[in-house]
Amino acid sequence: MPLLWMWVEGRGEKIDRKTGKGGAAPLLVRRILTERLHRYDWEVDAIRIGNWRKLQNEAETYMTYLRRRPEVDAVLVLLDLDDGCAAEIAPQLAQSLQELNPPRPIAIVFAVREYEAWFLAAARSLWGKPYEGNPEGKRDVKGEISALFEPDYRPTTHQPFLSQRMDLQEAWDRSRSFRRLVHALEELLAQVETPADRVKVTPGPRPPGPT
Predict the structure, then answer these.
(1) Which of 18, 120, 135, 180 sits a CA distance of 20 to 30 A from 129?
(2) Range of the domain at 114
(3) For the chain, what is the domain count?
C-alpha cells in the first residue's frame, strides 16, 4: 500500500505517538483521498517539522530523512502561511527542495493563513452559521474561532474533531488554499502512478512576467 508522508507544522496536526492525540492534518487528507478522490489504497503518516522558514533553512536535513525512508512514495508539505504571499513563497520553497534532487515527489501547500482558516471556510457545517468574513484574510484565526464559535478552542483537542466534521465541499467553495490542497494530492497521485524522468516538487517556479 503506498505511503504519503506529511510534513506538518503544529502539534494538533500530527499524531502524538505517546498519547494518540492529534492527527488532524492526516485525518483531513485521508478524508480528501477517500471522499473526493475516491482513493482507498493510500496510508498517511506525519511528522512535525516547524514553519516554512525552518524547512528552508534545514532542507538538506529533511531530504536526508526522506532518503532514509524508502517505503515513502510521496511527501505532502502542509504548513501555515501566517504572513506573506503563498503564490510567491511556495514556488521559492519548492525550488529550494528541487535543487536537492528529492528521491520522491513533493507537493507544498500553505494554509492561508492558518490551518484553522479551513474551519472558518466550512463554518456552516461546523457551527450552523457561516463565517461572514474572508476565511483566508484573518490573522489569529484561533482567536477568531474562540470569539465567534468555540470559546474554549484548543488546537490539540479541537483540530481532529473539527477536521472530521467539516464539510469538504463548503471548504472547497470558500477557500483557495483548500482547493490547492486537493490539487496537490492529485499532483502527487499522478506523479507516483506515472513516474517521469525527474521527480518534481510542486508548485514549480512562477513563469517570468511580461517585460
Answers:
(1) 180
(2) 3-202
(3) 1
Task: Quote the CA–CA distance of 7 and 14 in Å, as a whole number.
Answer: 9
Please report whether residue 210 resides in a domain: no
Q: Grid coordinates standing for 1?
A: 500500500
Type of residue found at 141? V
| Cell numbers for 167 | 464539510
Distance of CA 30 to the CA centre of its chain: 12
- pTM of the predicted structure, to 2 decimals: 0.91
Q: What are the cell numbers at 205?
A: 517556479
- State how far the Cα of 76 lies from the Cα of 22, in Å rounded to an integer: 18
CATH number at residue 41: 3.40.50
Distance (Å) of CA 63 to CA 56, 95, 104, 157: 11, 13, 10, 31
Q: Is 167 helix (H, G, I), strand (E, B) or coil?
A: coil
